[in-house]
Automatic annotation (TrEMBL):
Membrane-spanning parts: 75-94
Residue ranges of every copy of the FecR protein domain listed in the record: 173-268
Family matches, as InterPro entries: FecR, FecR_C, Ferrdict_sens_TM
Signal peptide location: none
Keyword Disulfide bond recorded: no
Protein name per its UniProtKB record: FecR family protein
Domain Protein FecR C-terminal residue range list: 311-378
Amino acid sequence: MNKEQLKKYNNKTASAEEKRAVETWYETVNGAEAAHTADEAAQLKEVIFNRVKSKIEAEKEVPVLKNRLRISTAFLAKAAVLLLVFSVGAFFYLHKNKPVSFASFIKTKKSTIKPGDNNAVLTLADGSTVILNEVANGQIGQQSGASITKTKSGELVYSFAANTNAKTTAINTISTPKGGQYHLILTDGTNVWLNANSSIKFPAAFTGDNRQVEITGEVYFEVFKNKAKPFIVNTSQSEIKVLGTHFNVNAYDDEAFEKTTLLEGAIELKRGADKALLTPGLQASLSKSSSHIAIKEVDDLDAIIAWKNGYFQFDRADLQSVMRQVSRWYNVSVSYKGPILNKEYSGKIPRKTTAEKLIEMLHYSGINCTIENNQITVKP
């Protein structure tokens, strides 16, 4: 299947024969593995249970990411100035930036606003809640025959209890606040990472003929493949159907577009009567003001999931887009004094950086900010 055929399908210019060929290809890609029989499904439960149990018993701390410096040659060719390379391995550069005197930087009042961390709330089927960063490691409950365990490395793992065959479905929700993130493993083995100010609603055990979840905010999935049970992600604007694949969904309410980016496998995205098929490297954008599904190629997939790997990474982002990410991660509000700069910013900064250090970095790209009482004020 080539990109031109897929483009014609998504643009609705494909003939009936071409449309059938694309849809047949899609089913072949996602259905490469045979469907699980009843016996295989039972064995799968045991395999996942044993794998998770072993993981919990032999768990290790997540390795600290080393600071890296990545510079796009193509982008630097267009950039007017490389402003600064920080010793912590972060950099920030600006298109057509005018030199800024350090004396113009208004010093922030002494305080320390720490970056976000593993922080989420689990809401069980009966409405009771568990604050995950306060509860001790180990088993914290059971739902629909699934054991819920918090690991030492900060994951929440749902695994089938031995000899359990759940008939009912308990719906659970995990929500991250501003300044929070979390990693979840569902009972089918699917890995889910939630960015700040995000949520996922899911059944503790998948008992039907599909695996449906509902999300808000930004979530990255690595879906366990099971042809017999498609995995379906619902947002406020779309339905995403997969069998086994890696993809990122950015569906924040305060963003102009909902963006779904595919890293591995294939997905089918629906919005009302419209649908599109994605191959790795493609991104679908949905505007709240239009029913059209726009498809484009993504040059740097690492940038899409930089948040999951511990970084802010901007690619020609406008000022307000940069500050929305800062606001979510540091749990601060942002206000603007004077006109909003009509400039584009690109760069990479570790998310472990304190807000005060981040403000210094932003200053070198011409973004002058002050912090006071958990409020960032952006000035011309």
